[in-house]
Recover the amino acids of this structure.
């Protein structure tokens, strides 16, 4: 079966019609980075709240810690969205967790056979393999959220052995149009509530799907300090709560067997 059968074209007019008025969707075939493109639009004062840019291919996609993310054309769902934020800036880090929760719930709604989980703070896993990641970037009065979801990648197209795709996990839904619509609709509802009332109402739901909790993890901080610990929950600021009561607000973690 050819890859093209799983790589349906993105239908901009359909997405725009179904997601308006909350989202303004644009689709491009090739770009360097949807994240960078949206940031430039904001700098030029041409972006508006709710802009979404989706690309079939990115030549310079980046993930957390400036890691390169390259996917074969139309094999992944690659998009960035821009939202203005009313809440205090110290609360913005929770948006990474909120987005990861939105992706996880959207995928679960479309695929009841796979158990999608979140790896703190913002990776989505299936069977401990990464299927999606995201990057939040603060810009002026808002945030750009960049998302990459492996949809129809074959094994030889995966960026690393620890990754997987919806196709490889026999997902019931591989149409990127349907998937992105469900993610954006789920995120919109959660974001509206978060922007008004904060994160406390989402912590329980996040903890239920977070596979980083109540297990041994390896934590590496940005200054390269490393330790093993057990996490027991997350705070309203999106921090990881460790068993000793300390909090981690930025780190790379590895799940230990």
């Amino acid at each position: 079966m050819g890859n093209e059968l799983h790589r349906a074209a993105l239908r901009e007019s359909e997405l725009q019609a179904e997601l308006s008025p909350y989202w303004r969707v644009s689709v491009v075939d090739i770009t360097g980075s949807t994240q960078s493109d949206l940031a430039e639009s904001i700098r030029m004062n041409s972006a508006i709240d709710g802009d979404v840019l989706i690309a079939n291919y990115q030549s310079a996609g980046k993930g957390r810690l400036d890691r390169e993310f390259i996917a074969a054309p139309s094999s992944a769902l690659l998009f960035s969205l821009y939202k203005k934020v009313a809440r205090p800036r110290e609360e913005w880090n929770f948006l990474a967790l909120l987005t990861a929760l939105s992706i996880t719930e959207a995928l679960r709604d479309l695929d009841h056979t796979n158990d999608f989980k979140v790896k703190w703070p913002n990776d989505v896993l299936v069977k401990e393999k990464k299927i999606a990641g995201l990057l939040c970037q603060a810009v002026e009065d808002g945030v750009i959220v960049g998302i990459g979801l492996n949809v129809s990648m074959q094994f030889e197209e995966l960026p690393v052995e620890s990754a997987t795709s919806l196709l490889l996990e026999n997902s019931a839904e591989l149409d990127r149009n349907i998937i992105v619509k469900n993610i954006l609709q789920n995120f919109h509802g959660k974001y509206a509530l978060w922007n008004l009332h904060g994160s406390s109402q989402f912590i329980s739901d996040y903890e239920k799907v977070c596979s980083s909790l109540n297990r041994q993890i390896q934590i590496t901080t940005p200054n390269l300090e490393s330790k093993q610990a057990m996490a027991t929950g997350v705070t309203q600021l999106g921090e990881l709560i460790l068993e000793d009561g300390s909090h981690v607000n930025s780190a790379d973690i590895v799940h230990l067997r």
Q: What stands out?
A: The longest strand covers residues 129-139. The chain has two domains: 3-204, 212-255. DSSP finds five helices and twelve strands in the chain.
